[in-house]
């Protein structure tokens, strides 16, 4: 049976592209002192070596090629640092060179065309957004003003767990719920997803959690079109289609939130009380170096909710897993809580930095994010550099 004409054309196109790729690789000057790494294939590079758990694949490769290695993902060279010493070079010593982000389909379709801080390229907009976060949204005074929200939701969380005593508990589900409840009240100003949900949201808690799960998944997948741009339009894995569906869901929710805030802002007795209020005020500020558009407000809002929900829940889950894995650490933590706090009062935020012992990486502690990072964040070099 003869193959369809489009199949023949596609195979001829791929063969020609592979030949051209090989020819260009011969003409490309070979630079000295490049990191070692596996030999790439034409077109796909080393993508064939990356499995469904990329971090494990990279770890196995690092055991063979060393703490710093060079791979090729499709059309792009990728440098992987696999030790704390090498990571320090990228994230601290030369962080200004690697502060940007690669341009991906996820950044384009799920974050309002790179309008949030997570995927925005390094430049005036990113620097302005970082300043807004530090001085307007996350100042010490601002965070202290939200303590009552954290207390209410934390007590509701503990009450739910107490009611489930003696039963199997999927801790991540409860942690995700309490962090989402806290963050939504701080960012959006309403109890959209709290224990005392007011019913004012156009999506349920379960629907919104599914949206967040899809957001994290699509921002972490290895999308072939990002690495081989000339076949991106084919959307071979179907990820871009899913990104567009998710974008529309978030856009509907954000439009609902912003409209409620705008109506409230028009009232005569309006007082800014949440982070969306502050972002809308900044959007009206003519003195901003880069105008904060409506898409920018939506991108920042989504960043605040997503970034404050899953990473916090994941970090606490890892800490609890370390406690359960090492009973001696659990015993030590319990004894210390009994000694410092007692059993007749709640642990308060003011106790954390001064009264309680800070452990090392072997238990529940402030080092947990270092031992069990919540998520990877790829960096993109802005300038050509050589420092090793």
TrEMBL record:
Keywords: Heme, Iron, Metal-binding, Monooxygenase, Oxidoreductase. Pfam families: p450 (PF00067). One of its GO terms (molecular function) is monooxygenase activity. Its cofactor is heme. Belongs to the cytochrome P450 family. This is Flavonoid 3'-monooxygenase.
